Amino acid sequence: MPSVVIRDVSLNFGVVEVLKSLNLEVGKGEFLVLLGPSGCGKSTLLNCIAGLLDVSAGQIFINGRNVTWDEPKDRGIGMVFQSYALYPQMTVEGNLSFGLKNAGVPKDEIAKRVARAAEILQIEPLLKRKPSALSGGQRQRVAIGRALVRDVDVFLFDEPLSNLDAKLRSELRVEIKRLHQKLGNTMIYVTHDQIEAMTLADRIAVMRGGIIQQLDTPQAIYSRPKNRFVAGFIGSPSMNFIEGQLAQHDGTWVFEAADLRVPLATYPFQETNLSPRAATLGVRPEHVGLNTGEGWPFEVETSVEVVEPMGSDTLVWTKVAGHDFSVRMATERAPSAGQRATVGFDPLRASLFDAETGERL
Amino acid sequence: MADVTAISPAELAGPSGRRPRRAISRRNVFIYGTLLLVSVYYLLPLYLMIVTSLKGLPEIRMGNVFAPPVEITFEPWVKAWAQACTGLNCDGLSRGFWNSVRITVPSVILSILIASINGYALANWRFRGANVFFTILIFGAFIPYQVMLYPIVIMLRELGLYGGLWGLVIVHTIFGMPILTLLFRNYFTSLPEELFKAARVDGAGFWAIYLKIMLPMSLPIFVVAIIIQVTGIWNDFLFGIVYTRPEYYPMTVQLNNIVNSVQGVKEYNVNMAATLLTGLVPLIVYFVSGKLFVRGIAAGAVKG
Fold first, then answer.
1. CB-CB: which of A89, A102, A132 is closest to B203?
2. Which residues of A make CB contacts under 8 Å with B?
3. Which domains does chain A have, with CATH numbers?
């Protein structure tokens, strides 16, 4: 049985449609990440699941129970917020036990659960402190603890790491993953950070304009993006795009742009009924070779414009068919600006999109 | 140490460290001069009142308004408090003082209680028609009191509350509502919304969130509301004289009756003492709560 089911959910604020007839199923114990740019409706969707926003249409089921009209506390969810949202006048212990007190849980049971959550999150020494005396990372731990003590099946995270600095963020990221493996709860996690999404998720739902663009495993979303938006949104540095034409040449399909002709014999076409049309070719910088001398199915000579060393590797900017084209490569082998270089890639790992609809071909 | 060989010795001998500031500069003279002038402008009348209230009538008649009292007497204060005649009775301001206390305390508590709940509901529980309700409430703040004076007399009469203390308490509570609700709504809106959401997930209802989450975070705004209401209601004259019978007149109305009495000798010293007595309560509120106000803001400054 799926843990969370969202059926045809819409949400309007006046005339503004934030969610458009959205369907989603989250399996038991699954870690689902809602990913998208700001304003795409991902936080709104999470708030709807939590019951903090009323849906305009549709239904929400949690553990097979219809919770569409239920209060947040009755839905069997715990939630972690971006700003931690700790009650400033209560101690950490008070924060953890507030929900349980409201639910009328007996005192010894509260103490037991608080102790267990504190142990899991290693915040035992902080229990008597006020939130103002905690660091950002500690606060977020307490916020997670507040969801933990509720003993619920579904955890909702609303950009929980966005307020932390880069180092803490990566630390807590691992910790959340560890927590998920240990507890096995269903977790729905909202973020605009694709690294978080890729590292944490069992499945990612990429959203835009209140619609789920693609729902798939991180690997599938990375290597076979369903449309041009997903392709451009996922991956850092982002994918290179070349505008051109899909055409037939000597019986095989090719991609033509300016004076280039990219053979698509190895490209895994999704559509069977192909016709010549305007198209966009997308290649990830890490899938492009520069001066490798390897004999790629497609190669072109160009000049190096800018070199960006990033420590672990280097991003080299060139021009291909008049478009900026970046190559990610080992720093030791990187050329310097102004040199001539040969770039090549295998269309097998490229993505081809219909220029008009943006859909993958 | 930095390498200074490239810099000439003359430059090196120049300014170093904190820039010196002269105590008497043109800027300082201007600033403190202005402050002094304004302080004198505001404090002179107060000085005059205190000095006069401590003089006997013969000394006042000699002129020398600004001179300090030759012989300090507290008789005018005693008279103003316990013996001055206001209309029918001659028991001074004390009666009015206690009337004002009995009017102000319930009015302040009642109006702040209701307005804070109003503001909380408007800020956090967006019920249907909340905006219309809020607009109407705010609109109330712009209607001149004079327009409503007589209708309220009739309403209180029909309710059987006209002339008593509770009628006046209700009037003060109602008239405090627009501005106080606005104050509380804006404050609660400025609190992080996620706190409210977290409390809802934690199963707290309307009252639990108000009492356990919102109230403890709102000390500063409550102090502001108390200052506004205590001074406003204590200083009220119009409602007091319109809606109460003479035996319930608040202090301000009595003060007017003492100062503006046309019979007998003008007792300036008693008038001054009476005025000072009447102004004492708002003054104390400012002094006490001003400190609390700062402390409240400091205590509430927990950044998320």
1. A102
2. 47, 50-52, 71-73, 77-79, 81-89, 98-99, 102-103, 130-132, 146, 150, 158
3. 4-233 (3.40.50.300), 240-354 (2.40.50.140)
Fill in the amino acid letter for B171.
V
* Tens digit of pLDDT at every position of chain A (361 positions): 789 999 999 999 888 889 999 999 999 999 999 999 988 999 999 999 999 999 999 999 999 999 999 999 999 999 999 998 999 999 999 999 999 999 999 999 999 999 999 999 999 999 999 999 999 889 999 999 999 998 899 999 999 998 888 888 999 999 999 999 999 999 999 999 999 999 999 999 999 999 999 999 999 999 999 999 999 999 888 999 999 999 888 888 899 888 888 888 888 888 777 888 899 999 999 999 888 877 788 888 899 999 999 888 999 999 988 889 999 999 888 888 888 989 999 888 999 999 888 899 8
Q: b/e map of A245-262 (b: 16 or more CB within 10 Å)?
A: ebeeeeeebbbbbeebeb
For A326, A340, B87, the CA distances from A299, given in Å and listed in that order, are: 14, 13, 108
Tell me if ipTM is over 0.95.
Answer: no
Q: Chain B closest CA to A353's CA: distance in Å?
A: 40
CB atoms within 10 A of CB B287: 9
Tokens of A40: 């795409």
Q: Which domains does chain B have, with CATH numbers?
A: 22-73 (no CATH), 94-299 (1.10.3720.10)
* Contact flag A85-B192 (C-beta cutoff 8 Å): yes
Closest by CA to A92, choosing from A137, A141, A136, is: A141
